[in-house]
């Protein structure tokens, strides 16, 4: 709770591989020209040091423990250092983070299906540095997902008070829950995961700062190994520095023996522990301006070829195991009895193929059947972490300009490719330019215009430009479009629906104009996005029709994605 700054969105797309060149300070104003120098001043071995003699961590941890024994009452105000009024805001932000984690990555919030004949496996969560159980009571139990929550806390007097705080029925924030709790008095550096079960969620908040780098990496490795395979996630929520133009990557608090780290410092430690960033919110809103920013990051075990190494980032090619899996699917044309596969099974295999086959590749291949046995192929770039980092492009399995290039190949007179985010526009522009180059032998393809935004494929001009829904105009005018393609944009968690409908109202002035939308349903707490889109469209005299599954493409269709046709309703 010291002075800090606002969040900085310029986080590196890959975590750093060393702390070389990082500087910082302590609470008495002393400067340190390296991470090693800071730890050496505390007689603690850093993660990059090989000096085994400088590894006296006992004094470091005794100072932190003594501070909490002397200064921290077993109350909400005590565990939050006098900031109890911030707890509801913090918990609300954490709930939103969990919701985004479920909607965008399929983690945390999904309750296992259960029936009397096939009981679902139990789900477990763990709150690290639990104090009196604030996060357990205000977040983990109300989720109604976990059968059991383990609380790990080094201060015995806080842990002793936890059951009464969590289950106080006369409290205003009491939540009735079937979740059971178990209590473990242990420091994080000494904690060992249970052997009988794995965690779906491990929540670490405002406690990681008390670990030395070496112990922090070892602790995260144990957390990683304690996760439920494929779905488990670690949420790390800590104060951070190094934002708003500040150059310091660490701030050493000499009073309570803690280190506030920059976001890249935290990502470095996670990377050293074999973890990768799944989702991050760089700063929690509604906190006092003089506090440190509080980023929240979800971490999961590394995937692909990097899983057991310190190589950063995702694999840039599909793993050999994944390729072998899809090759096996392709080779099996019938079942064990020799009969052809059912259409249902073949459909599932086809869907799995186009959704997942190239999900780890840098390039996604596209093939178009042009008739008369002619096939045109090109690739579009996908950026694994673009949308997450806010740097370049969107993310894996999102292909800016793919449909626009296809429209040009199929004979459109002109194609306008737009997005409201400059980072996405840049990737779309690069994809169109690359497609022009690869299709040079198959079509008359011109060079980009002087502004670098106009290309040509099969004599069809493609313009790539930035456009916000309902604001401004596109090249050629908003009322001059025959077909409007909208891919997976009815997503109120990320984009408000009303501006999209306003834009469609402008584009669909002619009764002959048609908008084609793909919609993948995701739960939203305030309303059903499908109903809200139809309500707003009706106000604008726009009709919405769902294309039956049997009329959709045999390969590129799936049960959880709807195709909508939107037209102007002609009044008699």
How big is the Rg?
27 Å
Largest sheet: 7 strands, mixed
Assign an overall shape.
elongated
Order of strands side by side in the largest beta sheet?
5-4-3-6-7-12-11
CA distance, first residue to last residue: 65 Å
> How much helix is in the residues?
25-40%
Strand fraction: 15-25%
Helix count?
Answer: 15
Summarize the model shown.
This protein has 572 residues and is an alpha/beta fold. The protein is 28% helix and 20% strand.
Kindly describe this structure.
This protein has 572 residues and is α/β, with parallel strands linked by helices. The chain has helices spanning 35-41, 58-71, 76-79, 87-105, 134-140, 156-166, 213-225, 263-272, 320-331, 343-356, 386-389, 402-409, 422-438, 497-507, 529-539, and strands spanning 24-26, 31-32, 124-128, 148-153, 180-185, 201-205, 233-237, 240-241, 250-253, 258-262, 275-281, 296-301, 363-371, 374-381, 415-419, 454-457, 460-466, 483-487, 514-520, 542-546, 561-568. The strands form five sheets. A seven-stranded mixed β-sheet has the order 5-4-3-6-7-12-11, with helices on both faces. It has a five-stranded mixed β-sheet with strand order 2-1-9-10-8. Helix 4 (87-105) crosses helix 5 (134-140) and helix 14 crosses helix 15 (529-539). The chain is elongated, with a radius of gyration of 27 Å. The N and C termini lie far apart (65 Å). The model is unreliable at 1-13, 49-55 and 305-317 (pLDDT under 50).
List the helices and strands and how they pair.
Layout: E1 24-26, E2 31-32, H1 35-41, H2 58-71, H3 76-79, H4 87-105, E3 124-128, H5 134-140, E4 148-153, H6 156-166, E5 180-185, E6 201-205, H7 213-225, E7 233-237, E8 240-241, E9 250-253, E10 258-262, H8 263-272, E11 275-281, E12 296-301, H9 320-331, H10 343-356, E13 363-371, E14 374-381, H11 386-389, H12 402-409, E15 415-419, H13 422-438, E16 454-457, E17 460-466, E18 483-487, H14 497-507, E19 514-520, H15 529-539, E20 542-546, E21 561-568
Parallel strand pairs: 1-9, 3-4, 3-6, 4-5, 6-7, 8-10, 15-17, 18-19
Antiparallel strand pairs: 1-2, 7-12, 9-10, 11-12, 13-14, 16-17, 19-21, 20-21
Helix pairs in contact: 4-5, 14-15
């Amino acid at each position: 709770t010291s002075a800090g700054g606002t969040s900085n969105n310029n986080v590196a797309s890959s975590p750093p591989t060393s702390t070389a060149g990082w500087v910082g300070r302590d609470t008495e104003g002393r400067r340190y020209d390296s991470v090693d120098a800071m730890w050496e001043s505390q007689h603690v071995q850093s993660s990059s040091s090989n000096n085994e003699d400088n590894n006296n961590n006992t004094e470091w941890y005794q100072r932190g423990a003594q501070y909490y024994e002397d200064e921290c009452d077993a109350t909400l105000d005590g565990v939050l250092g006098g900031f109890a009024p911030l707890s509801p805001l913090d918990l609300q932000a954490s709930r939103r983070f969990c919701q985004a984690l479920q909607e965008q990555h399929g983690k945390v919030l999904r309750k296992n299906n259960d029936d009397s004949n096939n009981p679902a496996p139990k789900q477990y969560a763990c709150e690290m540095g639990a104090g009196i159980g604030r996060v357990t009571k205000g977040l983990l139990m109300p989720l109604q997902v976990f059968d059991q929550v383990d609380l790990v806390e080094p201060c015995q007097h806080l842990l002793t008070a936890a059951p009464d705080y969590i289950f106080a029925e006369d409290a205003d924030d009491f939540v009735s829950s079937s979740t059971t709790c178990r209590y473990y008095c242990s420091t994080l550096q000494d904690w060992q995961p249970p052997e009988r079960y794995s965690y779906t969620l491990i929540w670490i908040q405002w406690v990681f700062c008390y670990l030395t780098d070496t112990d922090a990496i070892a602790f995260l490795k144990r957390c990683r190994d304690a996760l439920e395979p494929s779905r488990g996630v670690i949420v790390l929520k800590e104060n951070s520095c190094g934002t708003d133009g500040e150059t310091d990557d660490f701030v050493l608090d000499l009073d309570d023996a803690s280190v506030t780290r920059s976001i890249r410092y935290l990502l470095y430690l996670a990377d050293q522990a074999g973890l990768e960033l799944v989702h991050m919110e760089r700063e929690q809103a509604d906190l006092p301006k003089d506090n440190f920013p509080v980023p929240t990051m979800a971490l999961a075990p590394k995937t692909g070829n990097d899983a057991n190494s310190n190589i950063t980032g995702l694999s840039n090619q599909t793993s050999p195991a994944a390729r072998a899996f899809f090759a096996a699917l392709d080779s099996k044309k019938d079942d064990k009895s020799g009969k052809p596969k059912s259409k249902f099974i073949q459909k599932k295999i086809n869907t799995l193929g186009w959704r997942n086959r190239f999900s780890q590749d840098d390039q996604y291949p596209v093939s178009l059947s042009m008739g008369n046995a002619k096939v045109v192929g090109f690739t579009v770039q996908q950026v694994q972490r673009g949308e997450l980092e806010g740097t370049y492009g969107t993310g894996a399995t999102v292909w800016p300009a793919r449909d626009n290039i296809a429209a040009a190949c199929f004979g459109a007179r002109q194609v306008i490719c737009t997005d409201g985010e400059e980072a996405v526009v840049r990737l779309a522009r690069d994809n169109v330019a690359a497609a022009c180059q690869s299709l040079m032998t198959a079509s008359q393809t011109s060079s980009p215009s002087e502004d670098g935004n106009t290309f040509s494929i099969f004599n069809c001009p493609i313009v790539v430009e930035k456009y916000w829904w309902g604001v401004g105009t596109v090249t050629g005018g908003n009322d001059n479009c025959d077909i409007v393609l909208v891919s997976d944009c009815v997503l109120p968690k990320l984009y408000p629906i009303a501006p999209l409908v306003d834009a469609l109202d402008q584009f669909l002035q002619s009764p002959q104009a048609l908008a084609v939308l793909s919609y993948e349903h995701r739960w939203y707490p305030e309303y059903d996005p499908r109903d809200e889109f139809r309500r707003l469209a009706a106000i604008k005299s726009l009709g919405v029709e769902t294309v039956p599954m049997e009329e959709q493409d045999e390969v590129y269709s799936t049960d959880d994605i709807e195709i909508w046709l939107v037209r102007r309703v002609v009044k008699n």
